[in-house]
Amino acid sequence: MIAPRIGMIALLLGPTLAGPAPAADKPGPHGFIYGTVKTSGDHSYTGSLRWGTEEAFWDDLFNSTKDDLPYLEEHGQAKRQRNRIKVFGITVGYRWDASVSRMFIARFGDIAEIEVLHDQQIKVKMKDGKTYSMDGGSNDIGNAIFVLDPDLGEVKLEWSRIESIVFKPTPANLRPPAYRLYGALETAAGKFEGYVQWDTQECLSTDKLDGNTADGDLSIEMGRIRSIAKNNREGSRVELKDGRSLVLEGTNDVDSSLRGVWIEDPRYGRIRASWETFERVLFKEVEASGRGYGDYGPPRPLRGTVTKRDGGQHSGPLVFDLDETEDWELLNGEREGVEYYIPFRLIRSIEPTRGERSRVVLRSGEELLLGESQDVSDSNDGVVILGPGDRETYLSWNEVKRIDFD
Question: Are 342 and 268 within 8 A, CB to CB?
Fold first, then answer.
């Protein structure tokens, strides 16, 4: 395949800095998660929602573990081929762990409803009515949910009391108590810009950055901070908006135990920069809060053409890695310490390369060479192309030369 010129430049030079907030954003509270939570006590609470001290916006990611994996169960030979049982170097059989699990990762804006069945077991309904059964897998299930009820104020609802959560468009007159963090991120792999979730947690101006100084412990509101830069493995240099500069150490907010810096970059979706690649983030104040619930259109099935290494082609609806079937689902891969979570709707093609990587071409024309994950490495379980009736064509990953999405 001849790469587009812009894509080859991006591949060689790395990501370039994005412009201001994406066009879908508009001033106002539209990006805040909003909905109604019904409890086992037969009460309902409606308002903006926050998952514990973390997710609060429609483009944040909801994580769980999928219960139903029909294609993986049916085409499990890909697993068997990679788990050979050998005696004195001779293959005597294959082993396949039928209990293998897969993560469900979706933006809150693509979800219509979450129904709590029992403890960690839930059912998630998407906007097209399709449902998925889940069981645990992250602190998104089991964590308390905070509802900012306009009459009652902030209500903390324990997970064990929740029966269902129905998502709704955020009212234009909602008055959130804080603004969303936005900034430009500098990394060893390039520059990114968008909404910030610091340490996978702090995303509001009122959230606190904790750290130790020679004069004692500090807890600083994120809205008072102009920039954070890595100082050394033990800490970071924090520049405040009033001009003061402090070195903070000793907590996972500011040292090498940081869980990463998330950026919602409109070019890619969600990215996470590790401590090792992180250099500096410069915060900016914007009037928008992210895409609104209505900006997440109904999902579409994955469709495209798979070209085999022997030149053959198969076209139709696709099941990628034996579990992804919709364009809202996310392709995961890493490049130079930056982890990408790219919605399939942004991807034009995927081409496995020799080794543990794949060349991912976005619909914008930009190319990314990604590795270090099942989606883009030799660990991928292959592709199913759905034909007329119940006909299915399965191709292992090493048979795939390129996938072009419609």
Answer: yes
Q: Which residues, 6+ apart, have CB-to-CB distance to 83 below 8 Å?
A: 94, 95, 96, 97
Alpha carbons 197 and 336: distance in angstroms, whole number: 20
Are 65 and 101 a contacting pair, CB within 8 Å? Answer: yes
* Strand extents, DSSP E, 20-88: 34-39, 44-51, 61-65, 84-87
Q: Which residue has 């030149």 as its token pair?
A: 311
Going by DSSP bridges, is the β-strand pair 338-343/261-265 parallel, antiparallel, or unpaired?
unpaired
DSSP letters for 48-109: EEEETTS--BTTSEEEEEBS--HHHHHTTHHHHHHSEEEETTEEEEE---TT---EEEEEGG
E strand or H helix at 117: strand 111-118
Here the tokens at position 344 are: 């399939």
d(CA 37, CA 44): 6
C-alpha count within 13 angstroms, C-beta hemisphere, residue 276: 5
Query: Mapping DSSP to helix (H, G, I), strand (E, B) and coil, where does residue 348 land?
Result: strand
Please list the pLDDT of the chain residue by residue as tens digits (406 residues).
333 323 322 333 344 333 334 445 778 899 999 999 999 989 999 999 999 999 999 999 999 988 777 787 777 554 444 444 444 444 444 344 444 668 899 999 999 999 999 888 999 999 999 999 988 778 889 889 999 998 899 999 999 999 999 999 999 999 998 999 999 999 999 999 999 999 989 999 999 999 999 889 999 999 999 999 999 999 999 999 999 999 999 999 999 999 999 999 999 999 999 999 999 999 999 999 999 999 998 899 999 999 999 999 999 999 999 989 999 999 999 999 999 999 999 999 999 997 789 999 999 999 999 998 899 998 899 999 998 888 889 999 999 999 999 9
Q: Specify whether the CB–CB gap between 321 and 382 falls below 8 A.
A: yes
Rg (CA), the chain: 22
Contact (Cβ atoms closer than 8 angstroms) between residue 373 and residue 383: no
Domain boundaries defined on the chain: 15-25+177-293, 34-66+102-167, 300-405
Nearest C-alpha neighbor of 242 from the set 230, 253, 227, 231: 227
Amino acid at site 112 = A
Whether 322 and 71 have beta carbons less than 8 Å apart is answered as yes
What pTM was estimated for this model as a whole?
0.85
Cα angle 310-311-316, degrees, rounded to a multiple of 5: 115
Cβ neighbour number for residue 310 with a 10 Å cutoff: 7
Alpha carbons 223 and 116: distance in angstroms, whole number = 35
